[in-house]
């Protein structure tokens, strides 16, 4: 522990040991708190496929002793190529550190997070499903009836969060986004003998083919040993929010007819895939229960589109910010901490979510406006995430604490908490502009329409 825990540390219960829960555990541990983690899964498998970790997260994780392990896991490619769907022409080249950061297998990153949590002496209570919350004590109750109390409960329980229901007071059902991803992850070796796609296996690479209302992201991991492709396409079928639903390879093959032979060859050779319906959730009006003692974090309150490449990174930032808020507010002042936390986080998270929509929409439409063969401005297809990376979530919390905590103190005294998102007005939305290097140069605040386009999504 880097800072004194004192004789009466803040007691934190974290529900869920995904990447968000683990990051929060590390942040709380380094702030000197006593952390108890409950995870419903008995043993984690190597689930998911490629996931990006940006410098904004790595800066924080490094402070918690988790850096070199993660860099080793990440894809070693320096750039990604954005290509035209049918002939593979390169439309833009962008450094990976400008777009997704380090791309690694989610399961490998998760293992490294879990190991670091355990190295720090925290116990992850596996196979412990939380079935009920008491927001006033606050406490959680497990399936076997045992109840555990703390000063704060953090709901890092993912996209199907039960804690979110308690916080909102209603079930926040997912909506179809109109898109789905077919995803496949497999050993790269069999592709090496196919001349058309052999170049993709020579060394780690990241390629994105963009077409009309579709894009396909391909990358290798472990120096080409493993191969991943993710095809995002229009899908209006009934939604089932699942990470494990099998996909129909015949449909995938139909979708890529006429695409660049390099990626078609890889798709042809693929035996199976998953079908992820990408679901929307409107931004939440609050991330904190009425008692102010249960706070949401990660996908439970701010899931991202895959094209945001920031789901795990923003969850990590949220862990850091909540820990600093608790430290500054003190054990007897959890409501102040949680309400400052949500206010500090909302705008930035929202912009990271919207970035994912922005790039998806540009990729899906840009070629509609130009004739085949005509050059496009490479900037039109680049991911505009660079401005997210220099941010230091801990330093920002210290810098803005006085200003935001004084507003929150007044709100708590008057009993009127301003919602993060007022459905009658729409959430404040920052419009960010960029210079030629992708640097953020301007922020304008506007309000989204009263019935906003849904944006908080699985990713
Ligand atoms: C199976 C899976 C595969 C994924 N694959 C990818 C991917 O390939 N690429 C990508 O970018 N993102 C992927 N994601 C999403 C990504 O991991 C998250 O966006 C990010 O890591 C933040 O996650 P989180 O910790 O908030 O939520 P999650 O990773 O969903 O973790 C939530 C945890 O809470 C646990 N939990 C839920 N309810 C309870 C309860 N009642 N009691 C105790 N524990 C509970 C869950 O078992 C889970 O371990 C995946 C997520 C999952 C769950």
UniProtKB/TrEMBL annotation:
Query: Its family?
Result: Belongs to the paxM FAD-dependent monooxygenase family.
Query: Any keyword Transmembrane?
Result: yes
Bilayer-spanning residue ranges = 12-33
Q: State whether keyword Membrane applies.
A: yes
Question: By what name is this protein known?
Answer: FAD-binding domain-containing protein
List where this protein forms a coiled coil. Answer: none
| Gene3D superfamilies tied to this protein | FAD/NAD(P)-binding domain (3.50.50.60)
* Listed InterPro entries: FAD-bd (IPR002938), FAD-dep_Monooxygenase_BioMet (IPR050493), FAD/NAD-bd_sf (IPR036188)
Record's keyword terms, sorted: FAD, Flavoprotein, Membrane, Monooxygenase, Oxidoreductase, Transmembrane, Transmembrane helix
An example molecular function term from Gene Ontology annotations: FAD binding
Enumerate the spans annotated as FAD-binding domain.
Answer: 11-328
PANTHER family named in the record: MONOOXYGENASE, MONOOXYGENASE, PUTATIVE (AFU_ORTHOLOGUE AFUA_6G12060)-RELATED
